[in-house]
Amino acid sequence: MIKIKAYAKINLALEVMEKECGYHRVNNLMIPIDLYDEITLEKDDKIIILNDPFPGENIMEKAAKLFFLKTKIDGGVFITIKKNIPSAAGLAGGSSDAAAILKGLNELYSTNLKKEELIEMSAELGSDVGFFIETKIALCTGRGEIIHPLDIDTPKLNVLIIKQDIGLSTAMIYKNYSYDGNRKEDKINNIIQALSTRNIPMLDLNIFNDLEPVALKVSKVLNDGFNAIKNMGISVHVSGSGPTMFVLNPTMEEILKIKGAAKKDTIILLTNTF
Ligand SMILES: C[C@@](CO)(OP(=O)(O)O)[C@H](O)COP(=O)(O)OP(=O)(O)OC[C@H]1O[C@@H](n2ccc(N)nc2=O)[C@H](O)[C@@H]1O
Ligand SMILES: Nc1ncnc2c1ncn2[C@@H]1O[C@H](COP(=O)(O)OP(=O)(O)O)[C@@H](O)[C@H]1O
């Protein structure tokens, strides 16, 4: 039996450009956080997901089918999952679960597929899946499927995750986006420099997400929650297509203020990048 941790991510930069063949071109700087789904895999003759939280549409099943199709193995897998990453949250839990299945099956069936082959396979499952083959800070380009790992010794950042009791569809958020032609290369370079020099104020100042205004516009709940935190004088960001918000290196006072003002059912947890 194989046990795998499928980690979540946050976006430190998300530049969304023009749409080509149904997908927007992006410059997407992602960093993993220490929040993970717990997955176990055992050989079986069928693909089975115990107590499947997304019956009939689980991306883990798609990943397993793709793996057996590509490797021409007549196999199966018995999967258990403990979902800890909130769904439809902008934390890419589903993408990470899919990558975990590809990596896990590669080990379980001793297929020795290279990292590059797993990343290529990942692109058939979703734009963000390839990032989780390595799960290391990277700038992802193309539609997100081309991974450029960043060779920097990143500081360990504390990350306060705030996820209100709503979900947002990635496709819907992209649909409501329109590109204004403004490039953000400088900001991305500043973020990379700030990470390398461990300049956290500079990092926080340069974090941006082109999907953030869209998510705030389509969801009043998110907009209200976001402004409530901003009005406390706290720097807050939306992760990916939302609705998860995050605060970097919060003070205890800030955490208590956010917790005190949060609605019931809001998930608030303190984690860290790695
Ligand atoms: C926005 C981001 C930021 O990291 O993730 P989330 O915050 O949702 O996790 C990603 O770009 C999401 O990646 P992923 O969730 O893999 O998206 P996909 O399954 O490939 O695509 C879902 C839908 O989003 C739109 N889409 C996705 C990626 C992209 N570069 N352009 C798009 O327009 C397309 O309409 C597509 O049909
Ligand atoms: N293993 C999975 N984990 C989470 N969501 C899944 C999974 N398989 C399929 N899905 C579907 O994908 C949708 C978005 O997945 P998720 O990765 O959680 O969103 P996001 O990328 O916004 O964080 C979910 O709402 C769910 O319907």
Which class do the helix and strand fractions yield?
A: alpha+beta
The main β sheet shows up as: 7 strands, mixed
Termini separation comes to: 26 Å
What is the number of beta strands? 11
Fraction in beta strands: 25-35%
Helix fraction, binned, reads: 25-40%
Radius of gyration: 19 Å
Report the total helices. 10
Mean pLDDT: 97
Distinct bound molecules: 4-diphosphocytidyl-2-C-methyl-D-erythritol 2-phosphate, adenosine-5'-diphosphate
CATH level-3 fold name of the largest domain: Ribosomal Protein S5, domain 2
User: Which series of helices and strands comes N to C?
Assistant: EEEHEHHHEEEHHHEHHEEHE
What's the number of domains? Answer: 2
CATH architecture descriptor of the largest domain: 2-Layer Sandwich
| Morphology | globular
User: Which segments are poorly predicted (pLDDT under 50) over 5 or more consecutive residues?
Assistant: none
CATH class of the largest domain: Alpha Beta
Pathway: Isoprenoid biosynthesis; isopentenyl diphosphate biosynthesis via DXP pathway; isopentenyl diphosphate from 1-deoxy-D-xylulose 5-phosphate: step 3/6
InterPro entries: GHMP_kinase_C_sf, GHMP_kinase_N_dom, IspE, Ribosomal_Su5_D2-typ_SF, Ribsml_uS5_D2-typ_fold_subgr
Keywords: ATP-binding, Isoprene biosynthesis, Kinase, Nucleotide-binding, Transferase
EC number: 2.7.1.148
